[in-house]
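P.,

For your records, the input lines for the assembly:
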Amino acid sequence: MGKPSDLVQGTLDLLILKTLSTEARHGWAIAKRIQQISGEVLQVQQGSLYPALHRLEQQGWIKAKWAESETGRQAKFYSLTAAGRAQLEKETASWERLSGAINLIVQEG
Amino acid sequence: MRWLDKLRMRVEMLFRRNQAGSQLDDELRFHLDQQIAENLAAGMSAEEARHAALRAFGNPAALRDQARETWGWSGVESVLRDTRIAARTLLRTPGFALIAIGVMALGIGANVALFTLVHSVLLKPFPFPGAERLVRIYEADARGRFKDNIVAGGDFADWQAQSRSFEQMAIKRNADYNLSGTQGQLPEISRAQTTSWKLFLILGVKPALGRLFSANDDRPQAEATVVLTWGLWKRRYGGNPSILGATVLLDAKPYTVIGVLPSWFTYPDSRVQLWTALYHEKSPWLMSVHEGHNFDVVARLRPGVTMVQAAAEVSSIQAQIRRQIPNGPVTDAANLRPILDAEVHGVEQSFYALLAATGCLLLIACLNIANLLVARTAARQKEMAIRTALGGSRGRLIRAQVIESIVLSVAGGGIGLMLAYAALQWLVATRPEIPRLDAIHIDLVTVAFAVGVMLTCGLIAGLIPALSSSDRHILKALQESARSHGGGHSKVRLRRLLLSLEVGLTVVLLVGAGLLVKTYHRLRVVDMGCNTDNVLTMSLNLPRGSYKNEAQLVSFYDTLLDRVRQLPRVRGAGLSTALPGQGHQRDDVFTIGEHSPLPTGQVLGADTVFADPDYFKTMQIPLMQGRTFADNERLDRANAVVVNHALVQAYFHGEDPIGKHIVARVTTPEPHSYEITGVVGNTLEDPATPTSPAFYFPILGGSERSPSLVVRTTQDPLTLALPVQRIISSMDRDLPVAHVLSMDQVARRSISDTSFDATLLAGFGALSLLLAAVGLFGVLSYIVAQRTTEIGIRIALGAQREQVIGLVLSDGLRPALYGLFLGLAASALITRLLQSMLYQTRALDPIVFVLVSLVLLAVASMACLLPAWRASRLDPMQALRTE
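Structure tokens returned:
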């Protein structure tokens, strides 16, 4: 706990949905992408990533398809569904509200 | 549409779990390989790259589980897994599994069978529309001396005319007819009901074919009509619809078949073959008198009228009748029963007693399995401790154990259901006199009950040992496994407690069984007042159509008796309308000519029998005084009467009865005077009822057409059945005979209920005794095994073999003794409920209680002896080395 790479509770879903909003990716790519974009600040543990992916799939927000990866191996590619897009908007909005509120308090001090 | 997608995912995850599982593995492996590739690219060696990747990856198994949990159904999955493990564990100890499943099968099977019986016969409503408003009405006594008397035709007529509580009311009674065809078809005696036309309306039954009775058919002047039951129509007429309008012969008189009842209609029981119209069959005189009690009354309550209101109304009408007729056997009140209660209250108590007994048996079975499981738990303590140490939660471990016992009880219950089915088939075949027999089915309710019982048993048997194993002492358990005695003490205590309970329940069952067996024995040895050995009986019914007057009847009787007496191996033959043990047939009121008139409202009554002069000699009913009928006391001169000893004691108070006169209306509407010519010994109508006053009138008076023929033989009476039947057939080939039985069978039939209950209860008792013995043996063997070292040391230090035996015996017998006392105390409380099923046996019969105690102690000692003996044979060196 307390490590910088720990994600704020509940934000992993948002990150995954956001990452998938541009293109379909497999698990490894999702983790890498989050790591790169955040400038290595956010480290997604496999222990949270895969359960989260499967949960989102169960919710119907993302769907999975087996396809050939860059290295030529079969990999499971996730992409957003229409419902997932709506969810992404909802979560983005609520994140902005939350982070904005936190910013207000932090900058006030 | 998201919920649809979600549902699809759910279903997919349920059915394609294996595929999804391997895909998950692939997905994770792909991730791992990517990580390795990246590490390699970063310049690590192959092995380093792999190790680093695995380190970063964490525990793949745990990760897989976490991912799987998001799929849903993981609860189901883990229960299934536990079930699989449980089944595998049980298969590894097939002996234990077989015993446990067998025990459960017997317990659950017996319970399901009895429950089905109680549910179908006692609880399930009749299949009539609005059955909750159907009642039977009885005559009763305002002072409460009786309340279920059958009804006189005149009383019914008044009730029907005056009461306002009922929509409709019908009257019926049972009857027997000789059924034959107009073309000389084989005759048979058919059980029938004769009813007023409204009954079918009240019960809401529609004909399957043709029509049912109308008011027009139900008059003395009407053409004779008959309605067939579905069973008779199928059996005798091959289900041919052309039977409608055809003529059949009932008692040699032509009846037109007007309709067929539907197959579901088997009221009042499935033995009824046909129905006739009551007011056509019975004389207007009989249907208007208030003294002749002959009939059953069925009525439908008006909506909104309660039973109590209706009973009060009919009672007041009946009381009014009594005020108008202060003399004679007329009752002064009425009683209502719901129709279901009325039809089944004869078997209610014994069914509930048996259900309670099977409940006890099942509880014993459960305790026994719990006991066996406690032993297994003890043996598996190390396994449990390791599982706990590895992070198995307590709830998870308890669940695993409970699932194991549920697997046992479900397997047992499945077999039990089959046993129950077989038992019910057997019961239906062997006990045709049980009311509503045709309603007995294993239906959804029964299956639900069976499943409930299985799960409950599984829970009880599984939770007791599971909760007893505490995870607070893992370390102790792990260390303990190095030594073979010590810590299991709480387990031993628990097992002893279970055993005591088991023995206690067994004692209750045995005492109940003992009381019934004693009752049955008492009933069997009851002196019926005659010699029942080597007597053949059969009943006849001479139809009015062929035997039109007294002279024809008497001449038939004379010829029949003559020809039967000439058969070889026949020592005597007689006729009577009521055989000992046949149950109550008829009674009449009378006055004694020489006595002053009785005060208003008082009557003398006695059971009425018609017999021929040789009946008494044939049955070896002793003649105590005077003579029986003379040969010429027949037809118009049949003015003699023979009375039994009980009648003399009840009504003559030391006077000499011979030559006195009995005035009664037994064959005529007007009182007729009969001279008492003799006194005979008492016989019993039923082994369980006390002797009652009875009088015998000459059957050769010619008034009776349905007697029983009795034939005393020199050897097995049933071998003479055919020769006698041939004589009857040669005299009248349309005359069927029925109830061809030996006198022993007649007498025994009346106690078949008791015999049945006693046999079943004794069976349950024996079974539970066996279970308790097995339990005792198991516990003691276990204790001995646990104390091997201790006993070895004792022997090494010089303890005598006898001392060791005593030590172990006292260990095993103590729970048995506690259980015995517990059981005796409980029996003393419970058996009082059985009192009304007992005959000449007290609920606290000391002999039964002592005998049960002795049997139990003997069996318990035997069960303990082997482990004790084994302990005393221990070689101390061996015992110490087993460490």
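Two observations worth noting. Residues 150-330 of chain B form one domain. Chain B touches chain A through 29 residues (CB under 8 Å).

Regards
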